[in-house]
Amino acid sequence: MTASAAVATAACFLWLGMVIAISFVEAPLKFRAPGVTVPIGLGIGRLVFRALNAMEAGWAIAILVALVVGSWSGMAVPVAAGVAIAMLVVQLVAVRPMLTRRSDAVLAGHEGPRSRAHIVYVALEVVKVVALIWLGIALLA
């Protein structure tokens, strides 16, 4: 395995593990903990997801650099990486601002109608997880 492949593989699986742990384990469980109100859960979630997204951006950059400096046979690695990175970009640029506006309104006491942005974010997370699994398998093949 080349150094660029090793970096991409490590970044891929670290990124995958963080997304699964935070998005699919911590986030849903946080609101079930005793004493956690919606405002407290939203405050915690905003901090946690800000940190997760910063780490994700770092892993995406590491994978991108590894792809640029490495040589890859076939299209599986660049396509899978591209899908994962594209999902992250859409989440950060298009969906997170909507979620932030919604959480700002809830924290200010204005419930209003529920936002569908959360469902879109979760759907993008599922696509990103599938792409990262695909990328990890392609890197190890």
TrEMBL record:
Gene source species: Gordonia rhizosphera NBRC 16068
- TM spans (from-to): 56-73, 79-99, 119-140
Q: Which domain of life is it from?
A: Bacteria
Keywords assigned: Membrane, Transmembrane, Transmembrane helix
* Name of protein: DUF4149 domain-containing protein
